[in-house]
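Cont'd.
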Amino acid sequence: MHNYTVFVPRLITKKEYFAPGHRACIGCGEALAVRLAGKAMGQNVIVVNATGCIEIIASQFPFTSWQVPWIHTLFENTAAVASGIEAGLKAMIRKGRITDQETKIVAIAGDGGTADIGLQALSGAMERGHDFLYLCFDNEAYMNTGIQRSSATPFGASTTTSPAGKVSIGQVTWKKDMPAIAAAHNIPYVATACPSYPFDLMDKVKKGLAVKGPAYIHILSVCPTGWRCPADLSIRLGRLAVKTGIFPLYEVENGRYKMSLDFPKLLPVTDYMNLQGRFRHLKPDVIAQIQQTVSRKYEELRNKSAACREDKRGS
Amino acid sequence: MATRVGMEVSVAIGEMVRLANADVIAAYPITPQTHIVEHLAKLVANGELDAEYIPVESEHSAMSACLGASAAGARAFTATAGQGLELMHEVLYIASSMQLPVVMTVVNRALSAPLSVWGDHSDAMSCRDTGWIQIFTENGQDVIDNILCAFRIAEDQSVLLPVMVHLDGFHISHVIEPILLPESSDVDSFLPVNKYPLPLDPAKPVAMGDFGPPFIYTEMKWAQEVNLKQSRETIVKVWQEFGNKFERYYHPVECYRSEDAEVLLLTLGSFSETAMTAIDKMRDEGSNVGLLKLRLWRPFPFDEIRQAVAKAGVLIVLDRALSFGGLNGPVCSEIKAALYNEAKRPKIVSFVGGLGGRDITVDDFQEIVNRGIEIAQKGSEHEFEIFGVRE
């Protein structure tokens, strides 16, 4: 990560590509992430939006927050629509019908639209190698429809369809590892990001746009409404997710793992979980289990990253 | 000069799409559509068609990719059949509602279960209310002529609607026919370059696919209905222009020896050719029968149907699909509705037949007509009969 000074925010464009006035909940991490991504993308993009929070808060006819060309069709087909746009532009440029403006295609979807219902279309588009950037804004449940669990919901979280009860701890499955799934497609660029680290997020979006071929960025988007936390904790929770190792920031460039932020010593997961209502019901034994898994996975990731570093030196 | 060449209809469809100079083909293989997309893939691989061929992972994505290509201003084509069309179903509504002029060939196939790769119209009928223009064809020449017309109709600035061209699986798709492929120069003069009015373009940003609250949804749907209804004029105009140029004429309802007929049979798709032979035979034997062939299924040609049956006493409709729990086959129901308020209307008899690829022969058609006349006179205990069913 770059060593930015406090003056760096002044270098960020004042222009808004995702304009204010939309209907996001107070403290929405996703709206912030989209706004930052917009600033990194600039004007020369076509945005393809899956059905979900961002689509619904910013596109009620006759209004739109989008200052760039934007299309929404369905929930699960965003990557497929993006591949059609990419192919269409490519064919028309080749045939001399339009001039090549090097326009980038950016597909955006939530965790449900990515890890669940849209996974097939995304896998197809990544496998086929279309030149596009896919941003998954992960708020860890179907927030738009009322906080139902998705495959990206973390273990132990209580949602409206994985409620904690007398005989249930809530979500009983571990969060699907989408970045690993994307990386398994051997695409040139995969990264994780969080709007609590805005410059890192914007750098990664720029990088994702610059590579030729599919790029995938998984962005943790704090949802105060669904996570049941005060709205003013949105930024802090994003940082804690990273610092506890629950949501590590890293890149996978051409298969090489690299930590964007590396913490030799992680904060305990309770620093993050205790601030959220969705984990409030958890007993110490389950929290200990979560701590163990988070620590182990973080170590695995660090080792992978270290191995790639060694590899590079050796080669 | 164009010359007639014997070729498989599926191959001819690929050739027509090449002549139409499609920009994007997104397709997923399904029997009996495969030969079309295989041929297109070959044309692209050999550089004979300058297009992007997207070998998508499902039909849902095939239509979705076509939406994207079309919204970018490209000419998009796909082909599917049966289950593939059903998997696309949700996406079909988007293409029509968002006015994206995709052209699709549907090689009609029966729907599972039980699995059947053979033809009937149950897939086509399930798309009745999707807002697409739906054209039926009865032979290979019909198919390719109408694919060319489909691009012209879909991309017409007053229409901008997606078009399905239906052909019966195997009965048309896999048959080798003498096909007259038009000259490339004639195609170019008939089919101008696609100019989508407001494509996705960073220099001129548009928002496509906003969500519509109750205050506007009804008006949007009304506009869509008016647009589809009005497209009939353009469809007829394009067919007329096509006829003037290529000397083959198409109409929403095509009449065969029906002018003075007391008894009319109505079919659609490949069965129409067999039915014509049956009508000839019955005419030779002195029966006063004629045939109506429904070419345009959506928008439904109400006026043409009313006119065509005005003088007849009996109308026998043969559907190739069931509308489970409904009154008749879907086409017959539509026709009954169209004629209900007419002062003079024929007695209408409904048959369903040819399901899952079962053939209906010339003799069968004679039997259908005779039984139809009998039902018209004496009535039947059923609202409709399934021809040849072993009960």
